[in-house]
Design a protein that fits this description.
Elements: H1 2-9, H2 16-28, H3 32-40, H4 47-59, H5 63-75, H6 84-95, H7 98-110, H8 117-129, H9 133-142, H10 148-160, H11 164-176, H12 183-196, H13 199-211, H14 218-230, H15 234-243, H16 249-261, H17 265-277, H18 284-297, H19 300-312, H20 319-331, H21 335-344, H22 350-362, H23 366-378, H24 385-398, H25 401-413, H26 420-432, H27 436-445, H28 451-463, H29 467-479, H30 486-499, H31 502-514, H32 521-533, H33 537-546, H34 552-564, H35 568-580, H36 587-600, H37 603-611, H38 613-617, H39 623-635, H40 639-648, H41 655-668, H42 671-684, H43 690-701, H44 705-717, E1 726-731, E2 734-739, H45 748-765, H46 780-788, H47 791-802, E3 809-813, H48 819-831, E4 836-839, E5 844-848, E6 851-852
Parallel strand pairs: 3-4
Antiparallel strand pairs: 1-2, 1-3, 4-5, 5-6
Helix pairs in contact: 2-3, 2-4, 3-4, 4-5, 4-6, 5-6, 6-7, 6-8, 7-8, 8-9, 8-10, 9-10, 10-11, 10-12, 11-12, 12-13, 12-14, 13-14, 14-15, 14-16, 15-16, 16-17, 16-18, 17-18, 18-19, 18-20, 20-21, 20-22, 21-22, 22-23, 22-24, 23-24, 24-25, 24-26, 25-26, 26-27, 26-28, 27-28, 28-29, 28-30, ...
Length: about 850
């Protein structure tokens, strides 16, 4: 303005060159009022002054104003030149106004400027940015003398539109034509290689930079740091960064974000510290990356300090940063702080709502997550697939079937019924709400089902005990040429574990090996669990030993498996090995440890772990730990200590506690304790018939037949039926099911013939049927006959005639194995020289050479 004043003072304002100089100066400095005033005060319309004004508008982002100025200039009958056309076309590009751009294109052709390189380049960019790449390429080919600027204009548009491969091809075409790339060409190519995640091509471009002497260019260096980080070469990114003499904020942000991307959070925070020491002040992007790093390694306090710094920098109200803070606090388990950040946000967009809903969902506060979804919907802020997927996860955890159906209806109404994320979340939610028909309908109605969809449906079948359906669906998935991943294999292995389908589980193991998932932690843990639950603890041990990095889930699976198989001392040995390796147990691990002590009768060891749980491992015993300890004491006949624990524990005794005591009373024939425990169970779980049966067994064991009869009459009056014993065995990939006295099997005649044969051999070996706990009011001979036809004996007999000699027989039963069958199987294992592996509701029994792995303590 001082210059303007001097010009006025000396009367030079009338000079066109001076006036145009001032217009150009004001326009570039965004002082458009003065620039426009000078244009309007011109005695004669001047193309140069109008061009300067339009150029100023465009350079400062005022595209609409530039277009209006162009219209005014056109009305004044001023013809554009090679400087005006590029500015006007750039304004059309900013506003994506292709129609006006075509009109300007026409004017340029009429005025003979279509061959001008600058005009041609602007046209190329206009058509490309408006999605007309064919027209853009044709105009590019029409430029008679294409310089590196023309090539840069074209392939930068391709890069910005994510056509990375085409951009790289154009670059090589340019080099082949003899045109030397400049730093802008190479910068675009670096971005293209980043988009392609092509490390080989990226290194070639890096070579070009060095060869042509642009390796010290700061823009290129920053782009290289970003590229190497995003294509998986963090070492390369850091090496390039360390070559930058004076890193700017973009350089620091690129290397810090790269470290976070590769989960090298310590390194990221180290760079943040170096950046501050260098005198470079962090910005929003720096702080966002730093927050992610804190989240990644659980540094709550440092996260709080960064929050304080954000407030001091006066950027704490930025929505992007606030969402990062919500995420950091929620992943640190600090939902109250996350909610406070959210509540203090002046403008809450959908991203912020999604972040706070996710915060509650991730921390198990599912009711609050669902309530927030209702609130955001009520306030009319809308929702997207992220919102729906997150809230469906909480609904699945709550098993809120009615709410699940409402959200499903809402997603259909809002047009999300075909969205893969929403469909997969619906399948998962319906599955966990035990609404298999609804889950199947959503799955079948989806037009495009991906691997995640199949995994969700297979998991739903597996969790609902429909393992055979899960396996069928897996085969269907393979028929559709959908490659499995570790997660779907994990779900399948869980299905096999629930079915005790050993042979089918081995086939899934083959798929795990075939697809290279051998060392995957999820697949490895599921294999350990599957083999353990299918009765092959040796196979479980071999898989466990091959897991490269064993986490708490791996150790817990092995410890629990050994405990279930009666290898109590071995289970404790593995537990101590875990502690020595530096892995801390969780509450589930300690339940398995106590179960190991229980199955092996290790009362002293159990008491040691139970009493020192807080001191050694940092958490108070939960109800499951108390239940295990009460069961251990009860089985050992230490009823006073067991009842003292019941009376002093900080929980109300539930059905599992009284069930453990009732079981202990049956083992030790303690009628008084049995009656007390049964009375509690009849109040807590009146619908369960097992209580009546166990109490009747206690009465029968001490010959209290009148009380047995009363219990049977009570069950009859209450229309209560004893849960039938069901046993099943897998032979040649097929599951065969048996109930007591079952004659429905196609080989039933052979099965009963085998039982008759075994009966004779058992009698010669010294076996005497145990009818002590049989409640049937019939003579001893009839009771013995009924015992011979128990479901587990039928399954074992079928196994003997349907499997190769010497092969182990694996049977699963839904109830506790009866004493007589347990005794009979010890004899049978020795007579036929076969191992019989029986999994009942409590544990595994390995019958071999006349003895059982449980040591008759079960």
């Amino acid at each position: 303005m001082q210059i303007h004043a001097h010009i006025l003072k000396f009367g030079s304002i009338k000079d066109p060159k001076t006036r145009n100089f001032l217009i150009n100066l004001y326009a570039k400095c965004k002082v458009f009022g003065y620039a426009r005033k000078l244009v309007d005060e011109s005695p004669e319309p001047d193309l140069v002054s109008w061009s300067a004004l339009i150029s100023g508008y465009v350079q400062n982002g005022f595209a609409k104003e530039a277009i209006l100025a162009f219209h005014e200039m056109h009305l004044l009958d001023l013809k554009c030149n090679e400087f005006t056309f590029p500015s006007v076309l750039k304004a059309c590009t900013f506003t994506k106004d292709l129609e006006l751009g075509r009109q300007v294109h026409g004017i340029a052709v009429v005025n003979g400027f279509e061959s001008d390189e600058y005009v041609g380049n602007s046209l190329v960019v206009l058509y490309a940015k408006c999605g007309r790449f064919d027209d853009s390429r044709r105009l590019f080919e029409d430029i008679p003398q294409r310089s590196v600027v023309s090539w840069n204009a074209l392939f930068s548009c391709y890069v910005q539109s994510d056509y990375f491969g085409e951009a790289v091809e154009l670059f090589h075409e340019m080099v082949s034509s003899g045109i030397k790339p400049n730093e802008f060409s190479l910068s675009s190519m670096i971005n293209a290689c980043t988009g392609l995640e092509d490390s080989g091509q990226g290194r070639k471009i890096h070579g070009f930079l060095i060869k042509l002497g642009y390796d010290s260019d700061p823009f290129s260096k920053n782009a290289l740091v970003d590229m190497y980080a995003k294509i998986g070469n963090l070492k390369g990114a850091i090496a390039v960064f360390e070559e930058i003499v004076k890193p700017d904020i973009v350089s620091w942000n690129a290397v810090i974000a790269g470290c976070v991307l590769h989960h090298n959070h310590d390194c990221a925070l180290n760079f943040v510290g170096q950046m501050r020491l260098s005198g470079t002040h962090p910005n929003l992007f720096t702080m966002s990356s730093a927050l992610k790093a804190c989240t990644g390694i659980g540094l709550k306090e440092l996260g709080r300090q960064l929050h304080c710094n954000l407030i001091k920098l006066n950027i704490g109200s930025d929505s992007f940063v606030n969402v990062g803070l919500i995420d950091m606090y929620s992943k640190s388990g600090l939902t109250n702080e996350a909610r406070t950040v959210f509540n203090l946000m002046p403008d809450k967009d959908l991203i912020a709502w999604n972040a706070v809903i996710s915060a509650h969902s991730q921390n198990g506060e599912d009711v609050e997550a669902v309530s927030l979804f209702h609130l955001v919907h009520k306030e009319g802020l809308g929702f997207n697939q992220t919102t729906l997927s997150t809230v469906l996860k909480s609904i699945a955890s709550l098993q809120a079937s009615n709410v699940c159906k409402q959200v499903h209806a809402l997603s259909v109404k809002s047009g999300f019924e075909s969205d893969c994320y929403v469909v997969n979340s619906l399948i998962d939610a319906y599955g966990k709400c035990t609404l298999l028909e609804d889950a199947t309908r959503v799955f079948r109605e989806c037009l495009i089902v991906d691997l995640v969809g199949y995994t969700s449906m297979i998991t739903a079948y597996s969790q609902s005990g429909q393992g055979e359906e899960a396996l069928k669906l897996y085969l269907e998935m393979l028929d559709r040429a959908i490659e499995p991943d570790p997660y779907v294999c994990s779900s399948l292995l869980n299905a096999c574990a629930n079915l005790s389908a050993y042979e089918q589980g081995k086939q899934v193991h083959v798929h795990v090996l075939k697809h290279g998932f051998t060392y995957d932690i999820f697949a490895g843990n599921s294999l350990v669990n599957m083999y353990a639950k299918c009765g092959s603890i040796d196979d479980a041990g071999r898989v466990f030993s091959n897991i490269p990095e064993r986490g708490i889930v791996s150790w817990s699976a092995m410890i629990g498996g050994l405990a279930q198989h009666g290898h109590g001392k071995e289970s404790l040995r593995v537990f101590n090995q875990m502690l020595k390796s530096g892995v801390s147990p969780n509450q589930i691990t300690l339940v398995s440890v106590l179960c190991a002590c229980n199955h092996a009768g290790l009362v002293t060891e159990a008491q040691k772990y139970f009493r020192s749980m807080k001191e050694l491992f940092g958490f108070e015993p939960m109800q499951e730990h108390y239940t295990c300890m009460i069961d251990i004491l009860g089985r050992a006949g230490r009823f006073e200590e067991a009842m003292e624990l019941v009376n002093t524990m900080p929980f109300q005794a539930d059905g599992s506690v009284w069930g453990a005591l009732l079981g202990a009373a049956r083992i030790h024939k303690n009628v008084e304790l049995g009656q007390r425990a049964a009375a509690k169970l009849l109040t807590l779980e009146p619908e369960k018939s097992g209580t009546h049966v166990l109490l009747a067994n206690i009465y029968a064991s001490v010959a209290m037949w009148d009380d047995v009869a009363k219990m049977r009459k009570l069950m009859k009056d209450c229309n209560m039926k004893k849960e039938p014993g069901i046993s099943w065995i897998e032979v040649k990939d097929k599951i065969y099911t048996f109930i007591a006295g079952d004659r429905s099997h196609v080989r039933s005649q052979e099965i009963y013939a085998k039982l008759d044969e075994l009966s004779e051999r058992l009698s010669k070996a010294g076996y005497v049927p145990n009818v002590e706990f049989d409640l049937h009011d019939v003579d001893r001979g009839e009771k013995e006959k009924l015992l011979y036809h128990h479901s587990e004996k039928l399954a074992v007999a079928f196994g003997l005639i349907a499997t190769p000699p010497g092969a182990p027989i694996r049977v699963k039963k839904n109830l506790r194995v009866c004493i007589d069958c347990h005794t009979a199987f010890k004899f049978i294992s020795e007579i036929v020289s076969r191992e019989i592996i029986l999994r009942d509701i409590n544990r595994y029994h390995h019958f071999k050479d006349g003895s059982c792995s449980c040591g008759d303590y079960w």
